[in-house]
Amino acid sequence: MxxxxxxxVVLLLLGLFAWFAHPVEAKVEGMICExxxxxxDTGGSGCDVTCPPGNPGGGGKKEEPPTTPEEPPQAGGNSTxxxxxxxPTGDTSAKGCPLYRNKYFxxxxxxxxxxxFVVEQCExxxxxxxxxxxxxxxxxxxxxxxSDCFGFSISAYVxxxxxxxxxxxxxVTLVNYDTAVRNSCxxxxxxxxxxxxxxxxxxxxxxxxxxxxxxFTLELRPYDGNAYVWLPKLPSPIILPPADPNxxxxxxxxxxxxSHPDAGATIQAGQIKGLEExxxxxxxxxxxxxxxYRLFWRLTYERYTVIEExxxxxxxxxxxxxxxxxxxxxxxxxxxxxxxxxxxxVDRRWVSHQRGGEIPASQIQAPPHxxxxxxxxxxxxxxxxxxxxxxxxxxxxxxxEGKTYNFGGKIYWGVREGQGQIGYxxxxx
Length: 429
Description:
With 429 residues, this protein is mainly β.
């Protein structure tokens, strides 16, 4: 045998040895892996185990988990993306916001594609979580709450409400004479900020998860209904519980010292607008009154929502291991299950939502003189309402006379000596 033929035979023998020592693994798409009991993966075939894509016998491309970018895809260049589905995942983000799996239909040139992204949709938290108001703007009569915790920015302004202290005799009384104060009205007030629309769509073409008719409301309510009065030369504060304005008994006290500079009265009636009834050169005691209030918030809106129901849909369902599951019948009269229970979109519509709660005074960034520590524990319990005070003059029988005064939370009262007085209550002249 010639040398070249001998060499060819040797090469052929070496090639056959390599083939048998390292056989080529054959993969058949759709075949059952491992157990080899079934030859296909079709409904009704009796196969219980299938090959997930990317595993031997499964074929296809291995599925990758969806990415979680900070923002959903945006249309740019020659591409457009539209949100077609938003489904809650049941999980929450690091900030405690619910996560939604958003599905987008994207058109890039002539190519169509579906993209899935997990995004967070932060709902407002109650006062036990992050503060609702991220900043405040205080005015002489109320305040603005600016909030960024709902996934968008919104503000609302609320004024301090009015409350009443009934007084008699007023604006001047006598030394050692029965003088009355009563707390007979305590109002509430609300203020609302509004946004028409927030979302990826438009009012005429909404996307799941879009919001409309968003109203952010602040409300000031009385803390316990009591009013607090501070008057010079008297034990203070005088705590007045709520009372009926129609003749109910007020709190009675007597001044023992006339209002003059030596007693600390430094302002004259003529310097006070609205006290024309008192002699202009008469010195007046200056007191004050306030009522504690609580702050509440409420957010109302409509969310464009995908409505789903559980129904029997054709074909199998795959579990985490790739197993095929048939657990329902798509039509009556068939012997075996040919479908599986799954959620199916049945409608899309606007759904009303409302949430709210109290904003504790301890979380409110307010000037110190507005924070009311009612139990003395060093923590604010309420907001002082100083500016809503209205004084109402009573008759001797403690009915409202009709004359009112408003000095921005202050009470001016003149007390004169008893010369010329006809008598004291309960005494004959």
